[in-house]
Amino acid sequence: MREQDLPHLRGVGPPIFLRVSATSAVVNIRPPARPNGIVSLYRVFSVNHNNHTLLSEGTSHQQTLHGLRPYTQYWVGVEACTCYQCCSQGPLSELQTLAAPPAHQPPPRPVTLTTRSVQLEWDEPLAPNGVIESCELHLRSPCPQPLQPVPLPCAEGPIEISFFGKRRSYNVTGLQPYSTYQLRAACFNKMGSTASNWTTVTTLSEAPQYVSPFSVGSNLTVICLDWTESFSLNGYLKEFSVTESQLRVYTGFYSYLHVPRFSQKTLSFQVTCTTDSGSASTPTIRYSPATGLGPVVPEDSGKEGISMSAAPVYSELWFILLLSLLGLFLLALLLGLLLQRALRKNPSARERPPLVMLQKNRKAGGEMYTGSCPELCSKHLSSSVFLPDRPTGLTDTKIVGSPMSVLRVPSQTDLAYSQHSLHRSVSQLIDRKSLMMEEGSWDNPLGHDSGLYVEEDEFVDAIKALRSGKKEHTMFTDTHL
């Protein structure tokens, strides 16, 4: 019920604000000038675009308003009631709450990401609670860092202020490649500040970088190498490799190596780091267990400590195995050629053919021995018949390929008797000699085994037959091989 409807309830005044803060205020209510009854209830309300919002109610003349928004303007009025529907409202008063620290800051948003920088944007707090005067961008290095084959030591870094000002965007530089960072935004008003949640970003990868020389030491048994602080990986690690005099002695993910110590000679070590974006190498360091570190071998200018190629191919295991297999194949081929040539060697011209065994054939008229002429003649004539003189007209002709000489009879008719006599005598001696060999009658009946036994009568007859030729018609000529 409005005041114009109830003329007996008049004179409701505007509220008076005693104490005002960011979220509350104390209101003093003056009694109506003409209550026309007993006021049983006072209500305090606010009006916003013709929308009435009840802030508090009660019978007290002082009421505290809670739940106000900081740094907000309100239009507040008082309503007095004498009964359930007997109420009258007074005029509105302006209430301005005080400022408070901002709240509900949104996190920054990455816009551009590179290997060493990140561009971010952010908004003002959803509840500024005052005039935002400036903003900050905070940066820290968290744990864990990006994945690696072997977990690396990690320590969470302190919070750094990368930016301070009134802008709402900033390009953060000076970051490390393949590293994780957390960033947040914080905005300020005259009453304080508020910070957002952390935004995590990971920079892109690039080639590794040589930082410092590796350390080398030794004791009585081993030489120790440590390159933990020698490289900035800047990417996902593929391998560490250690070479000694350009010969690879280690490949793996760990940043230390123990080499057995065998002698006092000077060793030349070099460490290479390979990632998914490239590789980098340390300078070659000479080390002698007796004298310690030597001078660093200088590298080419402009390329010291950095190499985009892998280790030399001749130090790779697959290359060594390939060369070994190729060497074995060439050696087998050479041996095969040598054996083939040795097996195809022609026999010597001076080598005589093998001797043929003497075989005996029995026929109706007697026994006949077959075999090579040198065998037959040399066996019987050379061991059993001794010719002191040669018949006249016979020539001594040697058979090629045999040490045996045979007699060639001329064609004269006057030597026919000597030829037949010689043939007959020799044939008789051969037949009898062969018969004795077959029947085992080589034994000397008198107990004297001279190996040249021939009956005396037959021997004398053979000599006489040979001397029966005419000396004027005989002539011996030796024909040598």
Automatic annotation (TrEMBL):
The keyword Flavoprotein does not apply. Keywords: Membrane, Transmembrane, Transmembrane helix. It holds the Pfam family fn3. The chain crosses the membrane at residues 317-339. Residues 11-100, 103-206 form the Fibronectin type-III domain. InterPro entries: FN3_dom, FN3_sf, Ig-like_fold, RTP_Phos/Ushers. This is Fibronectin type-III domain-containing protein. The lineage of its organism: Eukaryota, Metazoa, Chordata, Craniata, Vertebrata.
